[in-house]
């Protein structure tokens, strides 16, 4: 768990279970005080304590029960709720964290993990981490490339075949997030209909910030096929979608992120598999046969 005081020299790796998922840190270059790494994971635990909808004592749970006024919430909660309100407005109500669809109280789950991990990435960068990746249950933020001139390789994992990825994205500095129903079942609903979206199996969004990649992936998934184009209206962001009828749809800018060189080496330590995407064929918005790699990640 925690490290002892003193310098940590890259490469090093650390994993903790927070926010209901495994969060891994892989540092390839830099010297950090162990206390800075401890502080980063402590920050994630603090965010979980404030925002978890599964903890009765969290601010979000107390707010939902009416035991806590919004004006009395922490700065973190106020900031995230303001972000959710902005996303609600700019998405035509497809991103709904406030319970406008009749839920009891706000639930910012769709954005808070990306928001927290993005903040932790900046904390680690300021502490001396030069090349690193954080994988938070399939939401990935990377900095500096895995080595000079080599981006991190982030795979969109196949939903049924565990050792296959549908596509590999090459990202030196940025983030990738995926939203879909493939693993947890229909837990996302369209706030306009009250029913699970029907167009897509998954949406992956790549861009500069995990905060927004996370939010845009969820919103685009709810919107359906047109949500891919909506995500790409935000400068620097692109989307990769898998339809229910097994097509890959990508926004025009996605080509700059997708690896075209074939299978990944088995011992490639920079290949992260993120949330599953359906095996599919070329789609109308552009795309590739997703059988580009059948190799598992190696961390």
Word description of this protein:
The C terminus is likely disordered. 27% of the residues lie in helices and 27% in strands. Strands 1, 2, 3, 4, 5, 8, 9, 10, 11 and 13 form a ten-stranded mixed β-sheet that branches. A three-stranded mixed β-sheet has the order 7-6-12, with no helix packed on it. The chain is an alpha+beta fold and 299 residues long. The chain has one domain: ApbE-like domains (T-fold, Roll). The longest helix has 19 residues.
Taken together, the total number of domains comes to 1
**How far apart are the termini?**
18 Å
List segments where confidence is low: pLDDT < 50 over at least 5 consecutive residues: 262-299
| Number of DSSP-assigned strands | 13
Radius of gyration: 19 Å
State the secondary-structure class. alpha+beta
Strand content: 25-35%
């Amino acid at each position: 768990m925690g490290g002892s005081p003193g310098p940590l020299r890259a490469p090093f790796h650390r994993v903790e279970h927070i926010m209901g998922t495994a969060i891994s840190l892989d540092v390839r270059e830099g010297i950090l005080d162990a206390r800075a790494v401890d502080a980063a994971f402590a920050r994630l635990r603090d965010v979980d304590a404030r925002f978890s909808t599964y903890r009765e004592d969290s601010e979000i749970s107390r707010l939902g029960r009416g035991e806590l006024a919004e004006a009395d919430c922490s700065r973190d909660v106020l900031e995230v709720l303001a972000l959710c309100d902005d996303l609600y407005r700019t998405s035509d109500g497809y991103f709904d964290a406030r319970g406008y669809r009749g839920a009891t109280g706000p639930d910012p789950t769709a954005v808070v993990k990306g928001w927290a991990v993005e903040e932790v990435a900046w904390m680690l960068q300021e502490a001396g981490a030069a090349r690193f990746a954080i994988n938070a249950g399939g939401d990935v933020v990377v900095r500096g490339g895995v080595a000079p001139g080599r981006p991190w390789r982030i795979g969109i994992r196949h939903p049924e075949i565990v050792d296959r990825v549908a596509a590999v994205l090459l990202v030196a500095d940025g983030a990738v997030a995926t939203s879909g129903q493939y693993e947890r079942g229909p837990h996302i609903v369209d706030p306009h209909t009250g029913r699970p979206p029907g167009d897509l199996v998954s949406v992956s969004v790549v861009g500069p910030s995990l905060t927004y990649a996370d939010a845009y992936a969820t919103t685009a998934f709810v919107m359906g096929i047109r949500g891919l184009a909506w995500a790409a209206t935000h400068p620097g962001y692109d989307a990769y979608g898998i339809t229910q009828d097994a097509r890959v749809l990508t926004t025009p800018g996605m080509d700059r992120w997708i690896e075209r060189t074939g299978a990944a080496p088995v011992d490639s330590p920079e290949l992260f598999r993120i949330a599953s995407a359906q095996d599919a064929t070329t789609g109308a918005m552009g795309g590739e046969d997703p059988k580009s790699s059948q190799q598992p990640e190696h961390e």
